[in-house]
Amino acid sequence: MKFGPVPIEQAEGAVLAHATTAGDRRFRKAHRLNGDDVAVLKAAGIKEVVAAVLSPDDLGEDAAAEKIALGMTHRNIETKPAATGRVNLHAETAGVFTVDVKMIDAINAVDPAITIATLAQHAPVEKGQMVATVKIIPFAVVASVVDAVVKICAGGEIFAVNAYQPVNVGVIQTTLPGVKPSVLDKTLRVTEARLARLGGRLTAERRTPHEIAPVAEAAAALARDNDMVVIFGASAMSDFADVVPAAIERAGGSVIRAGMPVDPGNLLVLGTLDGKRVIGAPGCARSPKENGFDWVLDRLIAGLEVTARDIAGMGVGGLLMEIPTRPQPREPLPAPQSARAEPKVDIVLLAAGRSSRMGGPNKLLALFDGKPLVRRTAERALGSKAAGTIVVTGHQRERVRAALAGLKLTLADNPDFAEGLASSLKAGIARVAPDAAGAMIVLGDMPGVSSKDLDSLIDAFRKSGGRAVVRAAHLGKRGNPVLLPRSLFSAVAHLEGDTGARHLVEAEGLDVIDVEIGQGAAIDVDTREALEGAGGVLQD
Fold first, then answer.
1. Per-residue pLDDT tens for 174-191?
2. Contact 293, 237 (CB under 8 A)
3. If DSSP codes are grouped into helix, strand and coil, which group holds residue 424?
4. What pTM was estimated for this model as a whole?
5. Could you list the residue ranges forming a coiled coil in this record (predicted)?
6. Sign for the pseudo-dihedral over CA of 28, 33, 36, 41
7. In this model, does residue 70 exceed pLDDT 80?
8. I want to staple 170 with a disulfide (CB 3.0 to 4.6 A). Which of 126, 226, 242, 307 is the partner?
9. What is the DSSP code string of 305-356?
10. Tens of pLDDT, residues 463-495
């Protein structure tokens, strides 16, 4: 493949490196020019284009990505169609992701033109979540290089989603004087919810004194009728001969590992009894927050083996958080949320689209009560609790910007607006303030969304601690705007074409809060009829 300036007379069959405008025609990046295209470019006075010229032994980016993806062996994973040199792979079921690290490393070492990225080893995934992506960097790659990668892929299963199994779990809770029944009841509810997330079922509970003999007796009884036993000790394990590990052995079982290098979760015990797994849960497992207990439980319910060596290898990445219940935290704890500034939110207002369904006029310049729709939407954004407003422009950018004159907002240009919604999201997110905890994606063509509606979404986001996705809804149906936490910003860079924020919400598995704001969440004005029905007047 040759890359660089190409005389227009020699450009037929070349792949454009940049979006190019010729009169009223706009050619997208990666468009392969045909004879008619070349004629249009010539007529517009364009003498050369920057493009890639493929050799006979080259494979185009989509064909190369697709050939590699189809050469892979995997389980419970769906391969999506190739687009812009990328093939995404998604989980067909909820479970635990496993990957052959050596195989991935070998593929990524073949040639920088070919890349594969995956989730981390043993990452929990939801159905539909993206688990891996194959990306070809240039517009084409030599076929022999692709063949070398396919040969590596033939070496066995490259990755898998190990589906959660419908296991039955019995729970033991030990008691000591002063242990409140309400604590035990809450622990049971949290455990039921944790198992339900994984497709498991809590079938029985035994409450015993915190002594070796009664715990051993209860463990033996529960192991007969269940696939797994979980023991919550009233007192944390302080020695490898303490009540929980000793009870497992008294019942005729064996302790695989006592203690793990994951914090919180250090005091976990893992054993076997009658061929069933027994987990002595650490105290942090009484909370629904992620801890070392989840790391072991997820793998076991997904049918994966967990050995003493596996647990010993969890230390890198095992420092999950500092927990405030410790009497002597090793580092000063952050101030309570009430004493800190509330999470800051910027608004990204998308106003770069071509209004293609309008048949000509730009809907964002339509007048509502004598004011351009884009200006009215921007004023409502500025009137909300958002710290700043970024407006992404593209199509008819000068006219749109003129309609926004005098407003205190940030303008972000998207020269690639014709490539789809994803390009505008990228342009907007790139301008979000570094200290913003989230970005609310507001569509410029939703006249029914008010400043009060935007504030409702921001309030819900702040109550979540700035970690959840917040969506506007109407009558239980998701709509717009959508507020994304900063943890999703890096994922925006991987979006292509007309893929928007909804894809991220569905793929990343974060908590989602739907906020009912009324009919405004569902009203956009994509057509003349819809716009006029909403009270707008189109302008030429």
1. 999 878 898 999 999 999
2. no
3. helix
4. 0.61
5. none
6. positive
7. yes
8. 226
9. ---HHHHHTT-TT-B----TTSSS-SSPPPPPGGGSPPPPEEEEEEE----G
10. 988 888 999 998 878 889 999 999 888 878 777
Which tokens in the block code for residue 170? 């019995």
Residue 41 gets the label, from left (phi > 0), alpha (psi -120 to 50) or beta, of: alpha
The residue assigned the tokens 């994304």 is 484
DSSP 8-state secondary structure symbol assigned to residue 394: B
Pairwise CA distance, residues 351 & 380, whole Å: 14
Residue 156 CB-density burial (10 A; 0-12 exposed, 13-18 middle, 19+ buried): exposed
* CA-closest candidate to residue 455, choices 351, 380, 350: 380
- Return the sign of the alpha-carbon dihedral for residues 339, 340, 343, 346: positive
DSSP 537: B
Would the pLDDT of 329 be above 50?
no
Question: What length does the chain have?
Answer: 540
- What pLDDT is attached to residue 506? 54
**Residue type, position 413, single letter:** D
**Residue range 88-94: mean pLDDT, rounded:** 95
